[in-house]
Every structure is written in C-alpha cells, then in structure tokens.
Give the backbone structure.
Amino acid sequence: MDDRVRRLLYLGLTRASARIELVVSAQAMAALNAAAG
C-alpha cells in the first residue's frame, strides 16, 4: 500500500467520522430541545 494512498484513506475516514459525530450531536441537541421545550 502506498503511503499517499494510506494518508488519503486516513483523511477520508477521519472526515467521515467527524461528519457522523456532527450529525449525531445535532440530533442529540434537537432531542434535548424537544424534551426541554
């Protein structure tokens, strides 16, 4: 496996996981707001 390819894969994975975390936290905030409101 090429070093550059591995770096690209790693960047893609970290970016995807960060996006998933954003979506999950946004949904959690919406649920909290709905419960509080």
Observations:
- Residues 24 and 30 are 10 Å apart (CA to CA).
